[in-house]
Write a structure and sequence with these properties.
Length: about 100
């Protein structure tokens, strides 16, 4: 049976890197949080191509480039936009509630 997603506190917004990507530990998961011109987005931090930590990659606008093989993803929807990344990354909805960034997970 599929578990229903709920909103969970992730991190105070004040602790996030400005206009950059931040690594946040959430239970046993590593989450990448992206501060973009259109708001905050979040995904699993490990690249689905080879497991590199996307938080060590290059971030610009809405695009994260993996540090290992330079595959790239659009953080708004997880879509791969540059090889060798070919699979959509797992993303999470976000919302800011009184200065706490929440993800729907
Ligand atoms: S590990 Fe990210 S593109 Fe290969």
């Amino acid at each position: 049976m599929k578990r229903e997603k709920t909103w969970k506190d992730l991190v105070p917004v004040a602790e996030l890197e400005d206009q950059w990507v931040s690594r946040v530990t959430f239970g046993s998961r590593l989450i990448a949080v992206y501060d973009t011109p259109s708001g905050y987005y979040a995904s699993l931090a490990l690249c689905n191509h080879g497991g590199a930590d996307l938080c060590d990659g290059y971030f610009d606008g809405h695009i994260i480039e993996c540090p290992l093989h330079q595959g790239a993803f659009d953080v708004r929807n997880g879509k791969p936009i540059s090889a060798p990344a070919t699979r959509r990354m797992i993303t999470f909805e976000t919302r800011n509630v009184d200065g706490i960034l929440q993800i729907r997970i």
